[in-house]
Structure formats: C-alpha cells, structure tokens
Amino acid sequence: MTENSHESVPSRHRKRFPGISSRAYEHPADRSALVALRKLSGFDTVFKALSGLLPERSLRLLFLSDSVRVSDAQFAHLNDMLRDACYILDLEKVPPMYVNQDPRPNAMCIGLDEPIIVVTTGLVELLDEEEMRAVVGHEVGHALSGHAVYRTILLFLTSLALKVAWIPLGNVAIMAIVTALREWFRKSELSADRAGLLVGQDIKASMRGLMKIAGGNHLHEMNVDAFLAQADEYEKGGDLRDSVLKILNVLPRSHPFTTVRAAELKKWSETRDYQRVMDGHYPRREQDKDTSVTDSFRESAAHYADTVRTSKDPLMKLVGDIAGGAGDLGGKLRDRFTGASGGSAAGKGGAATADDSTDGSGGTRRPPGPEEAPGAGV
Question: Quick one: DSSP state of residue 352?
C-alpha cells in the first residue's frame, strides 16, 4: 500500500462521510476564522514560499531520523487507524504519521506543504484502541480543516512580531494578537474533538480518552458523570473572583481544559447538528468556495451571544444582565463579586451576607503542564 491510497482499509461498521466539508464539525468561532482565511486569495501560496524561514523542513528530518514512521511494518495498528480515519472523513492523501519517544501523552498535526501527524509513546501506551482511534481522528480533522497550515503561518507571524515588541506600545499590541490566536487555537481543538467523534463514532471512548489525559490510566478509579460534573462546577465558578482567575488560567493555554473539552463534546454529540451529519446531511467540500464570510461571522457572533446567555459563570451572567438592561447593576456587581446568595436587603440590617465558603484564593490551581505544541491534538 502507498501512503496516498486507501487500499487494505480495515473492515469496520462505521459510517463514512464522502466529500464532507470540515465546516460540518468546526466550532463556529473556528469556522468563521477559517472561512475568512480561505477567502484570501494567494494567502497560503505566499507564505508557503517563505517556508524556508520556518523550521518545518528541519522538523520533518528530525522525525524521520529520530522517530518511528507508522506503516504496515511499524505500528501497524496505528497505520490501520490512520487509513480508517482518512477513509471515513474522505481525506484523499493519507498524511505521514510518526511515533516519538516521549512519556508525556501528546499528539500534533503540523506542516505547511503537507501535514504530518506525530503521537508520543506516552499517548500510545495510555489509550486503548477505540480511545486512540478518536485521537487519530482528531488529528486527521486538523489536517482536513487546514489547521496545520494556518496555525504554522500565524505562529510564524506572531514570532516575527514579537521581535519588534520593543517598539512603544508594541508589546500591548502583540499580546492582543497572541491572545486572539490562542482563543482560536482553543476553539480549533473543540473542532478536532468533534472530528475524532465522527471517526470513532463512540462517545464513551472519546470521554474515556479525555479522562485518561486528565487523570492517567486509572479508569477503574474514574467516572464519566463525575468528570462531567467537574466541568459544571468549574463553569459555575463561585463568584467574580473565580471568573477572573479562570480567565487568567486559560489565557496562556493553546488547549481548553480537559473537563471543558469533555463537556463540550458531550453537548455536541446530543445536538441535531451531530445527528444530521450521522444521517448523511452535511455540507460538502465543493461548496466551500461559495461560503459567505459574513454568514460565518454572524454564526460565530450568535454562538458567543448564546454562550453568554446560557452560561452559569458569574461574570458571563453579569454580562448578560448588563446586555439585558438589568436594574440595580451596582448591587448585582457587589453580590456577584462577594458571592452573596441573597439580595442587597438580606439580613436584618440590610447588608448583604457574603458566602463564607469563598476565600478568594480561587481554589487549588493545577500546576502548569509541559509546554504545549501549537499543533497538539490532546
């Protein structure tokens, strides 16, 4: 079998999605950015010409020389999963895949000219076959969306801009760019999680994989419902102090927190959009060129508005109240910030009672993990 074919595709009882557009599974915020970039004629061509300035060629040689390339002869079960994922999502060219010795569970899809997928030994040893299938589908989803190209380009631009951060106010402008890029990266991970579910078609396996990434290979000690309850507790977040701490915690990350990813994927798996894709009703790739940038941004704006409206986070609730013209804004701000459960007239003397369970520390923060590769998929 050649790398560019789907010969000897393993037998399966999974649905296939011929001609599927990545728009079928992309998060609204991710999709709007990608649609806009795809409309910029020549954008990819110009920056691919600059690929010599990027370490891509060096990375390819590094993985070729110091990792194991997946094939029928090496990690054959991963090769079957890779062909399977490309067949289901109808990705014509199967990207090269490497296994890299690293105890940290991780995966990434990188590259300008042609995407390559890398998984670590820590991930291979951690996940079972169905969990790994979802991860491989996740990376193939990155490839189909073109995340590898756009991420590499934008990271290059960001790196270039950081070199001129000494210019007055330059650092402020750069941080705004970096913050916006990371927000997109986080949303693109939610998109790829959905692609992984379309490939694996097993929500339980997807949930198990995310739990293992968070808590290691101790499934007998973990529970999906309890794990999702953590996400709900995290979203509610206590008071405004916790809301601010959550923002500060997530800003430097390229990935959403694992419990959040699990909750978002579970929520999407129960939507009509997911069911329509599974029933064969999805946007086709040949229609991508006709996609409206305006409509995509409108969908993204509607998504964020709906997120604010339905969020249990104290800060988001306050924003919703402001947008809705809620009265007694000062009282609401005080109550949300102090975690008061009652109104301003609570108590005999009319003073609000603060929630004694909140000490302002924001809870025990998880120690920062290893540096995340921008194209990581787990």
Answer: P
Nearest residue to 141 (alpha-carbon basis) of 190, 185, 182 = 190
Distance CA 342, CA 181 (A): 39
pLDDT of residue 25: 94
Q: Give the pair of three-digit tokens for residue 173.
A: 């402008």
Give the residue numbers annotated as catalytic, written as ranges. 139
DSSP letters spanning 36-104:
HHHHSTTHHHHHHTTGGGSTHHHHHHHHHHHSEE-SSSSSHHHHHHHHHHHHHTT-SSPPPEEEE--SS
Q: Identify residue 277 by its one-letter amino acid code.
A: V
CA torsion angle 261 267 272 278 (round to 10): 50
pLDDT in tens, 318-361: 455 555 544 454 555 556 555 555 444 444 444 443 344 444 44
| CB distance 111 to 105 below 8 Å | no
Alpha-carbon gap, residue 78 to 70, rounded angstroms: 7
At position 306, the amino acid (one-letter code) is D
Low-confidence ranges of the chain (pLDDT < 50): 1-11, 318, 325-327, 329, 342-376
Per the CB < 8 A criterion, the answer to whether 313 and 236 are in contact is yes
Q: Give the whole-angstrom CA distance, residue 220 versus residue 157.
A: 45
